[in-house]
Every structure is written in C-alpha cells, then in structure tokens.
C-alpha cells in the first residue's frame, strides 16, 4: 500500500524545525572527552566535524530560500550522513553511546527531522536558477563572485586535506559529494559556469590565487606534502587525459613515461648515486626528461598505434612492465650499470633555481615556507603549464582532429584526417608532459626506484590509478582529472585502516561509477548529452517492449 504523502504545511514545519536545530547543534558539545578527533567538547564554538554539519545546514538554508526542493533534499541528506557518521564514530571509537553528550543526540535528531521534512516537501515547480531569466550582474560583481567561489572551493579542498583523522575525513567526504550534488541540482553550478565562460582570464587568475593561499595557511608540512603528491598525480593524469580523453586510446602503461622522466632527471641531478657523473641545472634536466619521454612515446607508439581497442591496451600494458623490469635489471649484474637496479638512484639533491634553494626554509610575507611548501609553488607552475598546453591544444585544429578520431575514426579518416599521425602526436605530447612531472617528482621524493612505477599498487601514482583518475574525474575535461587525482590520492591516504581491502573497494567504486555516472564526476558536456540520449533511448526501447508484450 503506497504511503500517504505528508501534509505540505507539516513538511515545511518539520523542515524548519530540523534546520534550526541542525544550525544550533554544532555550538553544543557532542562528547565529553577531547580523545575523539576534532575536540567536540566545546560549547559555543564548533570544532572538528561539527563544522561540516554547520556548513551543510547553511547550504540547506540557502537552497530553501531559493525554493529548490530537490536541492534541499540533497543538502539535507549531506547533513544527515555527515552528522550520523560523526555521532556513530563517537560511540564506536570511545566505546559506547554513553560517550555521546546531549548536543550529539540533538544533532542526530535534528538531521533526521530535517531529512524527513525535506523529503515530505512537495516537488517545486520553479525552474532551476540557471534557467530563470537571469539578469547579468555588473562586471565587478561577477569578478568578485568568481573570486569568492574559487576561494570557497579551495577552502573545502583544504579542509579535506588537513583532516587529522579517518573519522573526520569519513564525515567530510559524503557531505562534500552530496553538497555538490545539491548545487548541481539547484542550477547554481550551471549559472556559475555561464559567468565563468564570460571571464576566462579572471577564472584563471582566481584559480591560481586560491591555490597560492594554501601554503600560507599551513603550519604542518605533512599536509603540504600531501598537496604536493596530489599535484604530481594530477599533472600526470592531465597528460594521460590527452591520450585517453581526447583521442580515446586506452593506455595502460602510461606510468612508464613518468618513470622515464624521473630517471632521466635523477641521472643528471648531481646525485652521488648517479652512474653518469653529469650535473645539469633543473631547467635543462626537465627539458631532457621531457625529450627522452617524448622519444620513448614515439618509439613505442610508432609500431603499436595501428592497433585498436584491447590489442592496444595489452601492448601498452606490456610496455609499462618492460620499462619497470628493464630499469630493475640495469644494475651492473643483469645488465649495464645505469639505474642501480632495485636500489635505484637515491640522495637526489634539492632543486636550486635562480639561487632559490627548495630544500631550505624561506620567509615570504612573514610566513615561513619549508621544503614541501617550496615544491608546492613549483608544482603549481607545472600544473599551470600543463593546463595551458592542454587547453591550447584542445581548442586547436589538432584537438578537433583528435576528438573526431575518438568519435568515429573511420569517418574522420574518410574526411582526410591522418589518424596514425595525429594519434602519434597525442602519444608523444602526453609522454612529454609525464616526463616533466617525473623530473619534479624525482627531486621531491629524492629518489627514483622501480617500485614507484608499477601497473597497480596500493599507492598512486601507477597506471591503474592514473587511468581511474581520468575516467572517474571525467574524460576530455581539464578539471575532471584534477578532481579524480585529488580523490584517488586522498582516500587511500586517509583510510589507512582499509589498506587490506583497498583494491577491492577501489574496484567496487569503479563498478558503481560506471553504473550510475559513466560520464565522470566532472563530465564533458557533449559526453554527458550522449549518455543522456542513450539512457532515453534505452528507456523508450524498454517501454516499447513492455507494450508489445502487453
């Protein structure tokens, strides 16, 4: 028997009451001891995961004012999941529900009331914000809005990076995902995309400015080190996105190009373990790493890019393993002494560019920058360069040829596009960008060893995680691989207690993603439209089959 819908007046009252209590609960203590991560014992001031509950409550309030019922439901669900996870973690971590203070019980009851009321609200008839007859804001107001939005996005990412425990990150992750879902459903993200499209230079400046704020807010080098590794992972994923996202070539050995750049830079870095005795400045080492990786890409691509689909994937997978085995055997025993085999090249000295030693602490604007903060600034420059190359190539004649080959190689070839030449160009460009990231990575980690460049491992970067970052983030986009790389690096780093089951959970996440959002977290608009059209066609075919059977 179908459940009777809730009275609209009662639903609004329930939602309002739950929302008010949700906003009050973070200012009350949720537990009695500071042993639980985040110190939730404070009264009158939120701490730890209470900030997440407060933020999701404020988001729900904003969407309720805009009368976006579907978005309110998603935001209420974000508050529900994060709050119940925190309250449940208090009971589990501290040894029982007796450790939950009245503020915690109030928070749990409040989000339950809020969610029940939100799902009882009648579906809103108002069009999403993006579809309303929107009046353009003044130019200065739009620039200010772009700056505020990007700073807020950077704050959310910073919060995720700097969570000090798995409990805090576990509460943050679903809240961030469902909160973003609420913004998408409301149309606010689409409206923001419209504004961004009118101010591309301002968007680039705001993005860089927001990223530059991060090291100024960190006193713990541990979190800056995490950000460094995310940026390396993201730079390599963007390079792979040229091959996979733009051209549609399945490359399972891409990490080998990262290793080629890393070993090349390590050999000419001046390390005492280098076997060639040559020391080059960083700019020359980086260019050499890009050049060697480019040559490797062309040499591997020339005989293999005439293959398609699974055959190409198998060959590239083999190349990745051949690279790792080769550098493992160049130890002076199994082969010539070049890479020192399993021991690798260690003690790679810190970079020094224009007299700026990246290994020494420096004070900038009154803030002391340690080693990882220095490398963070360098990696931002690398990411900016990779994004610039990706954007310029993607909007060029070459980029359009790549997309044509991805969509229908037979039709593109019939129109005069030389498929092999353009695919080889993509392979070489992607390899050279990976080589640049590898050159920086070798100095950041101070070593280059074969175990860093496997096909699959429990820690990124490796070929499997790189491909997953592109697919999960969104193929053919710039922000997609960045988001995918950040998630796939942060989740293993924060959930170390899942280490035994990490690959199983990783596979499960891929299955769920392919089932419910195959276009990725940040989808390319054209691909999203194609997936939507395919779903509509499947639904229509199912309905026709049902009618035929009837």
Features:
single chain; 550 residues; mainly alpha; two-stranded antiparallel ribbon; 20 helices; 67% helix; 2% strand
Explain what this protein looks like in three dimensions.
It is built from 20 helices and four strands. It is mainly alpha-helical. It has a two-stranded antiparallel sheet with strand order 1-2. Helix 8 runs antiparallel to helix 13. The chain is globular, with a radius of gyration of 26 Å. The mean pLDDT is 83.
Distinct helical segment count: 20
What is the straight-line distance between the termini? 24 Å
- The number of E-state strands comes to 4
Identify the overall geometry.
globular
Element order, helices and strands?
HHHHHHHHHHHHEEEEHHHHHHHH
C-alpha-based Rg, rounded: 26 Å
- Proportion of strand residues: under 5%
- What's the average pLDDT? 83
Provide the helix percentage. Answer: 55-70%
Low-confidence stretches: none
Strands in their spatial order, largest beta sheet: 1-2
Helix/sheet category? mainly alpha
* Major beta sheet summary: 2 strands, antiparallel
